[in-house]
Design brief:
Blueprint: H1 3-32, H2 44-70, H3 75-99, H4 106-155
Helix pairs in contact: 1-2, 1-4, 2-3, 2-4, 3-4
């Protein structure tokens, strides 16, 4: 993979991760605003409900940003676990919006699910590339170490 395309794909991964978080927040806001204004209150129960919907998106955003910025491999696990929870919630959003008659919100849900898929694929691709590069570098070091040992023995 060319270095320029790697940089663009890393930026896309980080942006898609952040978009997943903000779309989860937007979809929660839509559901919060359905209640009448006089009955709408933001208390501890609503805060837990918001955390339930926003936390998987936040996990995807943090994992993809860490992986894009620092080229670590372990954030892939965070992205995968968070993406599973986010897809579960996305399918719940899809069913909820479809069967309550709010079809105007369905494109945002479809975009949410597509962005999760793109983020997970980019995360897996970069984890694979990083692991291949690490093992290739380690192999070169081992080969250089073996070659140095042979030359040292031959010189004595």
């Amino acid at each position: 993979m060319k270095p320029k395309s790697q940089i663009l794909l890393r930026c896309a991964e980080a942006l898609c991760g952040l978009a997943v978080f903000f779309l989860a927040l937007y979809l929660w806001r839509l559901m919060f605003l359905w209640t009448p204004a006089d009955a709408r209150k933001f208390n501890s129960e609503e805060a837990w409900f918001m955390l339930l919907f926003v936390a998987p998106g936040l996990g995807v955003a943090i994992g993809s940003s860490l992986q894009a910025a620092y080229r670590w491999v372990w954030p892939t696990a965070l992205v995968l676990v968070s993406a599973v929870a986010a897809v579960r919630l996305g399918l719940g959003f899809l069913l909820f919006f479809r069967y309550t008659g709010h079809a105007s919100s369905l494109p945002a849900v479809y975009l949410y699910l597509i962005l999760i898929l793109v983020t997970v694929l980019a995360s897996l691709v970069f984890a694979f590339i990083e692991l291949v590069l690490r093992f290739a570098k380690r192999r070169e070091e081992q080969m250089a170490g073996l070659g140095g040992a042979k030359n040292k023995d031959a010189g004595s």
